[in-house]
Amino acid sequence: MNRTDPKSIETALNDRREAKALRQLVPVTGGVDLCSNDYLGISRKLASFNLATSSDNTLIGATGSRLVSGTTRAHEDLESFLAEFHDAPSTLLFGSGYEANVGLLSSLGTRHDTIIYDELVHASMRDGIRLSAARSFSFRHNDLQDLKKKMAQARGDVFVAVESLYSMDGDTAPLEELCSLCEDVGAYLIVDEAHATGVYGARGEGLVQSLGLHGRVYARVHTFGKAVGYRGAIVVGSEVLREYLINFARPFIYSTAPDLITLRYIDHAYRLMAEAQEERARLRELIESVGALRSEFSGLVFLESSSPIQGVVLPSNERVLEAESVLQGAGFFAKAIRSPTVPAGSERIRLCLHAFNTVAEVRAALALLADVRRAEVVHG
User: Tell me: the pLDDT tens digits for 146-188?
Assistant: First the structure.
């Protein structure tokens, strides 16, 4: 078969190349990890987990969707364990955080209802909202006054969607104020805890639960692909919400169920996360140390953050790509976050801190970024 690709595809790719925004798959091999979401290093510990030690002889692959042949006692046991862990009536497993957000938000709301979302929520939440029958609009990032204005325009059941810890800027949502505001108007608050799971709370329960707000939040999404160190996700909420999603969340209904090996790994990873107090303490110490380093590198523009996600702004895709190349050439793996993922002019190197990183490693990476910044100033 010798057919050319559609012109629209070639044009879109060429536009991305010209804008220095073309995404590519680059294997990460060795070096200092300053880019992954493995904040506690749990994925490294999972490498030594031996499934053969289990007495369960039913470890098989997937056989179908949950509604056909894919639900086993193991699925129900894990969902019950996770509900207890997150102090909630129920949970429902999804194959990924993307599936969970799309499944939850696409199924909520009729044409008579409204979804209001923070302008910086993850693409998975936006995609789910686009698929919902409800009308929707955004509010300015963490701006409660703007949210109030948008609420005044809402109709029907009102859902408010936010992240607890924002993946690009590393800042947190004003969760207590959001809970109060939603309660005042009878809105339903939905919180994506992807980057907060494992990092916040005595056992890594997430930011909502660590603040004691879980009884005031309608639904939480906890993903396993960040600090939990594996893959998959759960929607945490009421028994009624669980039943509703089983019936109306299309990514759940029409996806093959997580296999039993995956369930075993998730269970083990959660138990490792719960016991990772030392790792969380080391991570907090590192975050504080990096905060103190900012004065040492006053020529760099940092995003305000007290989380493991630290951003250094180097405007323009070309500049952040150059900085990424310099870091990788020196053995540091940190990613350039380019427009259109973030607004033009706010391109940045995102440094993801981990319990296994050292202050010396982060200082060395920042010194390289400072050199790149100085060269920019000198040359223009």
Answer: 999 999 999 999 999 999 999 999 999 999 999 999 999 999 9
pLDDT digits (tens, 9 = 90+) for 344-355: 999 999 999 999
Closest CA to 172 of 189, 148, 190, 196: 196
Long-range contacts of 78-82 (CB under 8 A, 24+ apart): 78/263, 78/266, 78/267, 79/234, 81/267, 81/270, 82/222, 82/234, 82/236, 82/270
> Residues 356, 43: contact at Cβ < 8 Å?
no
Q: Under a CB-based contact definition with an 8 Å cutoff, are residues 198 and 228 in contact?
A: yes
CA dihedral of residues 318, 319, 320, 321 (deg, nearest 10): 50
Return d(Cα 190, Cα 134) in angstroms, integer: 15
Alpha carbons 105 and 128: distance in angstroms, whole number: 5
Start-end of CATH 3.40.640.10 domains in the chain: 62-258
**What is the DSSP secondary-structure string of 97-111?**
HHHHHHHHHHHS--T
Of 15 and 55, which is predicted with more confidence? 15
In the chain, which segments carry CATH 3.90.1150.10?
31-43+276-379
Q: Is the pLDDT at 58 greater than 60, yes or no?
A: no
The alpha carbon of residue 366 and the mean position of all alpha carbons in its chain are separated, in whole angstroms, by: 24
Other beta carbons less than 10 A from residue 356's beta carbon: 17
Strands 90-94, 233-237: pairing is antiparallel
pLDDT tens string 218-261 = 999 999 999 999 999 999 999 999 999 999 999 999 999 999 99
Q: Which CATH class is domain 62-258?
A: alpha beta
CA 292 to centroid of chain Cα atoms:
26
Architecture of domain 31-43+276-379: Alpha-Beta Complex (3.90)
Q: What is the mean pLDDT of residues 321-341?
A: 94
Q: Would strands 348-352 and 114-118 be described as parallel, antiparallel, or unpaired?
A: unpaired
Between residues 44 and 377, the one the model is more confident about: 44
Q: Evaluate whether 118 touches 138 at the Cβ level (below 8 Å).
A: yes
